[in-house]
Design the sequence.
């Protein structure tokens, strides 16, 4: 038996460092979870109010929407639901395109179409919510 204990060689490899900057994919993953939870609450509330409460879907007409959107609370509710649903869906489709589109050119065009359609839907939906005029004749 030797008088000195056997010492293992120290690990000389440098500790891997995290890349500096914003981690877009991690933030995207967190956004999908958070927006999904918020959307569940918003959509279930929307379905309850529109389909179950006070007589159900039969009462929904132009006057109902005009009365609902006269309140900033409901404008904010519907706007939040629109924005979160569109951003959540766009992000999900972005990931699917990245997974299944084979060539870079195909990915480029599919993402371009996706972002254009999403931006147009968000813009037009926001415009409708904020410029809705119940006094149209």
Sequence:
């Amino acid at each position: 038996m030797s008088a000195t204990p056997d010492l293992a060689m120290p690990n000389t490899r440098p500790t891997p460092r995290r890349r500096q900057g914003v981690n877009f994919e991690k933030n995207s993953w967190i956004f999908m979870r958070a927006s999904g939870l918020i959307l569940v609450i918003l959509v279930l509330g929307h379905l309850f109010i529109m389909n179950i409460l006070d007589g159900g879907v039969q009462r929904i007409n132009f006057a109902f929407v005009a009365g609902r959107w006269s309140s900033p609370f409901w404008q904010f509710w519907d706007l939040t639901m629109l924005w979160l649903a569109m951003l959540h869906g766009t992000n999900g489709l972005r990931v699917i395109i990245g997974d299944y589109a084979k060539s870079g050119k195909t990915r480029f065009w599919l993402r371009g179409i996706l972002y254009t359609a999403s931006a147009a839907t968000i813009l037009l939906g926001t415009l409708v919510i904020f410029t809705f005029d119940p006094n149209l004749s």
User: Anything to note?
Assistant: Residues 24-52 form the longest helix (29 residues). The mean pLDDT is 90. The chain has one domain: 26-131. Residues 57 and 109 are 40 Å apart (CA to CA).
